[in-house]
Structure to design on (248 residues):
């Protein structure tokens, strides 16, 4: 038994040493502490990379491998009031660099955008480019179905509820859902034809050109509504495509 314990002790010490190896420190703006953002985001980063990030709330003087402050070298996000926060790589270790890159990667930005308090999005990817790529798939499924029926159902068959609605040439939501890359397509549908000519997403799209108003009745959406639709889309049963046509 003693031998086993001794081996166990060695194994555990080794594991602990390894765990310590992949630990870095991030100095965060103190204003972010109360939001709970990091306890949502950083465990997800750890899951992907195995790197544990210890957060210290303070300023540049607090040291740290990565700084996430109002002064920064690379923008990361803004809060609801539009205050910007960004990252600075303070020590160039590979692990610190990984966190630095991840924060502005599509996955990192999506994770930040997905964080909610009482259903409210708290932080917004700061660069338009990135914001454009991101449609949250987090939201209220029931509201998502209602919103989709009201705003997309004019052209798309959404569910049983508008089975005979929609426009023939337009893919049903079930058919969209069956595409392998449906997330990517949905994630920027407002940039894909024919939508740009009639779709406005609050805070994301440019206003319509007043000289060329939309010829189709326009749809207006907030990013929250897009999230609701995304959440609903996730629950839709993908239509079976590629099955031989059965004619009766
Ligand atoms: C005025 C008609 C119309 C409305 C309203 C509309 N769409 Fe579409 N949508 C289309 C058509 C037509 C296509 C097929 C485009 C093609 O195949 O090139 C399409 C395709 C799509 C695609 C696939 C895009 C691609 O290129 O693969 C997505 C995703 C999509 N729509 C999402 C939505 C969502 C979400 C809404 C509601 C918020 C919506 N659409 C509202 C007409 C519409």
């Amino acid at each position: 038994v003693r031998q086993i314990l001794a081996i166990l002790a060695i194994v555990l010490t080794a594991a602990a040493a390894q765990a310590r190896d992949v630990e870095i420190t991030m100095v965060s703006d103190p204003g972010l502490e109360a939001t709970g953002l990091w306890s949502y985001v950083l465990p997800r980063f750890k899951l992907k990379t195995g790197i544990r990030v210890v957060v210290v709330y303070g300023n540049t003087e607090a040291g740290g491998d990565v700084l996430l402050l109002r002064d920064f070298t690379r923008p990361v996000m803004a809060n609801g009031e539009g205050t910007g926060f960004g990252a600075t790589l303070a020590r160039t270790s590979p692990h610190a660099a990984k966190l630095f890159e991840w924060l502005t990667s599509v996955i990192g930005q999506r994770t930040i955008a997905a964080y909610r308090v009482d259903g409210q999005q708290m932080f917004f990817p700061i660069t338009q480019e990135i914001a454009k790529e991101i449609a949250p798939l987090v939201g209220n499924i029931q509201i998502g179905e209602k919103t989709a029926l009201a705003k997309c159902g004019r052209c798309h068959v959404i569910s049983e509820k508008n089975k005979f609605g929609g426009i023939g040439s337009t893919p049903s939501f079930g058919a969209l859902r069956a595409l392998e890359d449906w997330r990517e397509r949905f994630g920027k549908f407002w940039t894909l034809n024919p939508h740009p000519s009639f779709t406005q997403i609050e805070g994301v799209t440019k206003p319509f050109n007043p000289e060329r108003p939309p010829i189709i009745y326009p749809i207006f959406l907030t990013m929250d509504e897009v999230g609701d639709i995304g959440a609903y889309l996730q629950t839709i049963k993908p239509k079976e495509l590629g099955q031989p046509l059965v004619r009766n």
